[in-house]
Design goal:
single chain, 56 residues, mainly alpha, 2 helices
Length: 56
């Protein structure tokens, strides 16, 4: 997913550059293909159904 996002961003930037847009490297520094706000990278695991209690 991250690799695909990076390719998409690179393609769009390339198209904008070819159309004559001025691309500021400083602006590109704020674009990240690794957005994590809505992604739970390791998932959510519930163990309460199994009766497992965390060590205190």
């Amino acid at each position: 997913m991250i690799f695909h996002n990076a390719l998409d961003i690179a393609e769009i930037v390339r198209q904008l550059f070819e159309e004559g847009w001025e691309i500021d490297p400083e602006d590109l520094a704020h674009i990240s293909p690794y957005l994590t706000e809505h992604i739970k990278r390791f998932g959510e695991y519930s163990t309460h159904e199994l009766g497992i209690q965390p060590d205190v």
